[in-house]
Amino acid sequence: MRKYVMAGNWKMNNTIAEGVQLAQELSNNYENDWADKVEVVTCTPYVDLKPVVEVFDFDKCNIGVGAQNCYFEPSGAFTGEISIPMIKEIGCSHCIIGHSERREIFGETNEMVNKKAQALIEGGITPIICVGESLSVRDDGKYDEFVRDQVKAAFAGIDAADAENCIVAYEPIWAIGTGRTASPEQAEEVCAAVRDEIKNIYGESVAQNIRVLYGGSMKPENAEGLLAKENIDGGLIGGAALKADSFTDLIKACL
Length: 255
Ligand code: PGA
What we know:
The protein is an alpha/beta fold. The chain contains twelve helices and eight strands. The protein has an eight-stranded parallel β-barrel, surrounded by six helices.
């Protein structure tokens, strides 16, 4: 039985004061026994990480905190970058890598995503590896092959025991922040393909254990249909994670 994962991606939203307030509201809503059914993670901007960790620690709240990016080198002359030991020390349990906004706006390549995945595993942080096709790739009907290639590239050189603990998030770019959600069938088709590709690389057992999330305009109104699908183990949530009540409703959809 795979445990659901609900990961909020705040993107470049919430100053420290705003982030602390949202974390406090989430903590007030959250019941620690929900952790038996669903792993909850809040991925905040770097500057919010420590204050948000402090809120959850103080409240003994079982919500994990993640970064939205990292650099794969442990230290050195990489102006503007943040290392894995830095986010580890803050108390991050997870880190999003390869988000389509990073790939599209900041030129992150499959190779960089793979290096980040390997370095995060080495550093004891769970990577949330994002994959997903653009509208033009979807319209060309090449999305299955495209996403499988991203999965293969991301997992290159990673062994089975580590792969099983990674999380993959399928986020069709045409559904991110657009209000145009993939239908449960469209999302399930590609999440199943991700799992199948994991099976091709690592075999049945890893494929059955790894969590594959859907992301792209997921909200309380459409979560139930998506979460009911066999190969969808939760969500990576942008807009709907910026309000404590809608994120809480999404968590409750997993219970
Ligand atoms: P959205 O973002 O829920 O606002 O579509 C999802 C994401 O980009 O992770």
